[in-house]
Write a structure and sequence with these properties.
Helices cover about 30% and strands about 20% of the residues. The chain is built from 14 helices and ten strands. Strands 1, 2, 3, 4, 5, 6, 7, 8, 9 and 10 form a ten-stranded mixed β-sheet that branches. α9 packs across α12. The radius of gyration is 25 Å and the shape is elongated.
């Protein structure tokens, strides 16, 4: 690995990489849904019009969160993190360049979201060198609160011993400073410094992403579910009493409470067919499928160019090839709850684990939704074979059974692993 000071001087920035957790219930996803605001390093530089517009945006976002209405004034996790970083460092958002590893959707949670931000090196060098250079500007000047901590982390990184047995040191002082400016539903678990030979991009060089999905349900046998559908069996009334009896104090909108009783054995069986390399075209969001279909008939020249330039099916971003992927893991852990009344159908807590190099929009939720439909007797296991087809033609999709998506509340980004190992500090 190259010398750290050499790498930093080439990039002219030092990159901090944070591991974050958040409850996504109050947010419209992770990624900011507007252009980067032009926030300067000083409050005095913000015009009265910009202050009024910013205040109006904050009020509108707060009202939207209370009423549940959709509008352009949405609030995301990235918004909150950027506000906290700008408030602490005084650096503009354009310079900080906050980016995350996964663009989780509205209502989706995370226990291991990777978020990175940059700090200009010209702001961290010694005072004498800084005064001589004279090249600081309002967008890169660091506040008096943040400068000592950031400078300390930078110099410690330059002098660190690469033979240390524990190179993964958390900059907890910086973490504390940022955390005091974040709401309680967003937590920073660690902050480290990127020491790779190339700039760090959170969404690149990912080896695997792991999602978990939490589901709670009443358990019945599959045969009973089939008979119920045909009107040939009776079911305990509590199974149709709705999800309210499945609520628990510490759920905090992080679990799907199934309105139907399910067969736990079918849940296990339905996960198996998806593991391995398949075409998951029918398990992505319909908007993405529609966009793919509009581009699925390229001209002869374009097809020849794609053939010459493509290195693998996984790298082809046009047509159906991008849906051909390896699902490394898809399993479920079932944990029964203790029920005082043994005559009632038991309650099961199910935790699905899905692991791949990456997932398409709504893919995890659609896979879980399919498994639940199988477990409640609405579809057959054989449907998985039909849906995992090798063609994405719109004409074929019309004859296929619809895949129902599971709610966002149970989904959580649980882990992100990279091909490199330079996250040291």
């Amino acid at each position: 690995m190259e010398d750290t000071s050499t790498q930093s001087s080439k990039r002219q920035v030092i990159t901090f990489v944070m591991t974050t957790e958040y409850n996504g219930f109050a947010y419209a996803g992770f990624q900011r849904q507007s252009r980067t605001p032009t926030l300067t390093s000083s409050k005095d530089d913000i015009t009265p019009t910009e202050k009024k517009r910013k205040r109006s945006h904050e009020l509108q976002s707060a009202n939207n969160n209370k009423s549940g209405r959709k509008s352009n004034g949405v609030l995301t996790v990235q918004d909150r993190i950027e506000q906290a970083l700008h408030k602490w460092t005084g650096i503009s958002l354009f310079t900080l360049r906050v980016r995350g590893a996964g663009r989780t959707d509205k209502g989706v949670h995370a226990t291991h979201q990777v978020v990175a931000f940059d700090v200009p090196l010209t702001s961290l060098i010694d005072d004498e060198a800084t005064n001589n250079s004279g090249d600081r500007d309002g967008d890169t000047e660091i506040s008096a609160h943040a400068l000592p901590l950031l400078r300390e982390a930078y110099h410690n990184n330059l002098t660190r011993d690469e033979t240390e047995t524990n190179p993964f040191i958390d900059h907890w002082k910086i973490r504390r400073a940022i955390s005091t400016r974040l709401p309680t539903d967003i937590v920073i678990r660690s902050i480290r410094i990127w020491n790779g030979s190339v700039p760090f991009e959170a969404r690149k060089n990912v080896a695997s992403k792991t999602y978990i999905y939490r589901l709670r349900f009443r358990c019945i046998a599959y045969e009973t579910a089939a008979k119920l559908k045909e009107g040939r069996a009776n079911m305990h009334p509590i199974c149709t009493a709705g999800p309210h009896l499945l609520r628990r104090l510490n759920d905090h909108n992080t679990v799907w409470l199934s309105p139907w009783p399910l067969d736990k054995d079918k849940i296990r069986q339905a996960c198996g067919p998806f593991v391995g390399r398949h075409n998951f075209y029918n398990f992505v969001h319909k908007a993405e499928r529609k966009e793919s279909n509009s581009n699925s008939r390229p001209s002869l020249v374009r097809r020849c160019e794609r053939y010459q330039q493509s290195t693998s099916n996984a790298d082809d971003e046009n047509g159906e090839d991008k849906y051909l992927m390896d699902l490394f893991e898809f399993n479920v852990h079932l944990q029964p709850e203790e029920e005082p009344d043994k005559t009632l159908p038991p309650i099961i807590d199910a935790t699905f684990t899905l692991k791949a190099k990456g997932f398409h929009r709504s893919q995890v939720r659609n896979l879980v939704g399919f498994v639940v439909d199988v477990a409640r007797g609405e579809r057959s296991l054989d449907d998985a074979t039909v849906l995992l087809k090798e063609s994405g033609d719109a004409s074929d999709a019309k004859s296929l059974p619809t895949v129902n998506s599971a709610p966002a509340s149970g989904l959580c980004l649980a882990n992100v692993k990279y091909e490199h190992t330079y996250l040291v500090a």
